[in-house]
Structures are given as C-alpha cells and as structure tokens.
Design a protein that fits this description.
Oligomer: single chain
Order of helices and strands: HHEHEHEEHEEEEHHEEEH
Cofactor: Mn(2+)
Organism: Oncorhynchus kisutch
Strand content: 15-25%
Number of strands: 11
Distance between the termini: 96 Å
GO molecular function: hexosyltransferase activity; metal ion binding
Helix content: 25-40%
Keywords: Glycosyltransferase, Manganese, Membrane, Metal-binding, Signal-anchor, Transferase, Transmembrane, Transmembrane helix
Radius of gyration: 24 Å
Subcellular location: Membrane
Bound molecules: uridine-diphosphate-N-acetylgalactosamine
Structural class: alpha/beta
C-alpha cells in the first residue's frame, strides 16, 4: 500500500490548527482560575489573586477610606492598617493556595518563659486556617511548654547555644535563621515570619501581611522625623545610615516574606554583622540596625503598620484601631543574662 498517495499535508495542518485553537481557548478562558504558582516545583512564587465566584463582600470604594494615615509608601508598597483590607476577601483569596507559613521564634535562657503565651495567642490569632510551622530556637528544650496546636500546625524545637550577652543572642538570630532556611525551612514553607518571643497576639494577623519582603514600622518611631531614628550613625559600621537618608524606622521584632527573600536578607545582615565584629564594632541596635540599613536599599514590598508591633507599656493612639501583636512589659534585669 502506498501511503503517500492519500496523504494530504493540508489535513495535517488543519488537525494541528484545531489543537492549537482548542489549547488557546482552554488557557485563555479556563486556566485563569487554576491558581498555580508560575513554576510549580519552586516554593515562594507569585500566585494569581483568584477570588471565588459569588463571594459577597463590601464594595470597595475609590473615594472613601482611611485618610488619617498613609497607606502606601513612596515606592508604592501598601502600608497595612485596619480598614485597608477586607479580611473575608483576603482569606478567600489566600486560603485555597494551601500555603505553609514558617514562624521562627527564639527563646534563649529565661526568655523560654514567654513561649507559652506567645504560642497560645498565636494559635488564636496568627494565620488562623493556614499551615503554620513554628521553629522554636532554644538552649532549654526541656522547658518548651506543650501547647495544643490546631490542625495543619506543627512545632519543631531546635537547640541553639545559650550566651551570657543578650546582644549576642539577639544578633545571632540572623545567622541561625539563615542556616535553618538552608537546612530545612526552604523545603517546608512558602513564607516566613521571624518574631520576638516576648510578645502576645491580641487580634487577627492574617494573609493581608503576606508579601515578598515584609517589614513592620516600629511603634516607638512612626511619628518621628528621620533625624530621631536610632539608626547606626557611625560611617565605620556596615549598618551606617547618613542623617539625611531613611524611610521609616523598622522594628527588629518582625521580618517576613518569601523564604528566599528573607534568606537573602539574613545572609547579607549576618555577613555585615561579621564585618563589623572584625572591626570591633557592634551596631547601635545590633541586628535591628543592620535590618534598617538593608531595608533602606532593598525596599520592602509590604509594610505593616504599628498595629502589627505594639508595646504593652505604650497607650493606644488614635491611629491604631487594633493592636494585633504587642511586646509584653518585662523586667530586663530579671530576664536578660546581662544588663
Ligand atoms: C528590641 C527589638 C528587638 C531587637 C532588640 C535589639 C522591637 C519591638 N524589639 O527589643 O527585636 O531588635 O531591641 O536587639 O523592635 N532573646 C532571647 N533571650 C535573651 C535575649 C533575647 O531569646 O536573653 C530573643 C527573644 O526572642 C527576644 C528577642 O531576642 O524576643 C529580642 O530581644 P530583647 O527582648 O532583648 O529585645 P527588646 O525587647 O529590647
């Protein structure tokens, strides 16, 4: 049989054309709602903002909103305040993504006593309905309290050395977070938040806080001019910020974002800290100073208002409608290894 006599090239072209057309129609009109990360094998990619059909929520306005506070930075990152997001809509967009949020917390020495309240209140308010993996770094694993975790939430205890200097404990966090991202977190989570343990959650801290690189405005300095920010001012330090530069003063009690972005941040800050140490310099506020320097030139993609980092000794101010996370009042002489 001679196949070539019946073979019509235009039939083949027609069949290929029909397949291409069907593929185009499928990907144009149906795949929009698949909500896959752009590279499924890699964690921490950008997902589509897919909202479920028929979800009822308040109509957003372009004219009415918060006017008492600034809700966007000059580089167009959102500043998250109560009233700038719809929690129902945000949850419905992010929950189907099945994200895992790593949460690191250091409880070295006597700070282990803050863990129970931190974890119990996190279970009530922090990323509720999401997969959360707590990583507790401590030199006292036997003193880590047993706290009931809801479904989808796990806790690992990682032993770290103690120290007789609080400055060293606080500063070493960058290095330990960096190495733990390398050894396990990058395989286990999409986003990461690194938080201070001597704090409690008081209200929702949810998916509105997710972003590529997330920082929080320190509650002590949000109404100050940059000249009053306690940045590192010595040019010899790698954390140096000149007097006429600076956006906000960010709190060291929270660093967040995609695991890989926080990995880069911790790597850079840890290295700069080491350079300073080699030159016998310790930045004014240790890792917080290096964090502020990093964020000045690597702008955060989302900024959390002081609602996400308050301090219990501070009276609530009129701009702060909700206190979501706040540092407890502590007796430094009692809990720190040195004064
Ligand atoms: C501020 C910052 C904190 C950090 C520090 C300067 C805010 C609100 N707080 O808080 O993030 O930048 O100044 O270094 O921005 N820790 C231990 N054991 C210790 C000491 C510290 O585990 O003995 C850990 C613990 O997780 C604690 C964190 O380090 O939450 C910060 O240390 P801090 O409580 O001494 O810092 P604080 O409250 O002065």
């Amino acid at each position: 049989m001679r196949f070539s006599t019946n073979f019509k090239p235009y039939v083949l072209l027609l069949v290929v054309g029909i397949f291409l057309l069907l593929g185009y129609v499928y990907f144009s009109f149906f795949s929009e709602r698949l909500n896959r990360p752009s590279k499924p094998m890699v964690r921490s990619r950008v997902w589509n903002m897919v909202s479920p059909e028929k979800l009822l929520y308040k109509q957003p306005s372009v004219l009415v909103g918060r006017t008492d506070v600034v809700t966007v930075t000059p580089w167009l990152a959102s500043i998250i305040w109560e009233g700038t997001f719809d929690p129902v809509l945000v949850d419905n967009i992010y929950k189907p993504m099945n994200l895992t949020i790593a949460t690191t917390v250091f409880a070295v020495g006597k700070y282990v006593s803050f863990l129970r309240d931190f974890l119990e209140t996190a279970e009530m308010h922090f990323m509720v309905g999401f997969n959360v993996r707590y990583y507790v770094f401590t030199d006292r694993p036997q003193d880590v309290p047993s706290v009931n975790l809801t479904q989808g939430r796990h806790l690992s205890v990682i032993q770290v050395p103690g120290s007789n200097r609080w400055q060293e404990i606080s500063a070493r966090r960058m290095e330990i977070i960096q190495t733990t991202i390398e050894s396990q977190i990058r395989r286990e989570a999409d986003y990461i938040f690194c938080l201070d343990v001597d704090s409690k959650f008081h209200a929702r801290w949810g998916a509105e806080s997710l972003g590529r690189l997330v920082a929080v405005i320190h509650p002590g300095y949000y109404d100050q001019t940059r000249a009053n920010f306690p940045y590192e001012r010595r040019p010899a330090s790698m954390a140096y910020i000149p007097m006429d530069e600076g956006d906000y003063y960010y709190g060291g009690a929270m660093i967040g974002g995609f695991v890989e972005d926080v990995y880069t941040l911790t790597t850079v800050c840890r290295n700069r800290f080491a350079v300073d140490a080699g030159n016998s310099i310790e930045a004014a506020w240790q890792e917080e100073s290096h964090l502020n320097r990093y964020l000045l030139y690597n702008k955060p993609s989302k900024v959390l208002s002081p609602e996400y980092l308050w301090q219990d000794f501070k009276a609530k101010t009129k701009e702060v409608k909700v206190i979501r996370f706040s540092g407890v009042v502590k007796n430094y002489a009692e809990v720190r290894p040195n004064v």
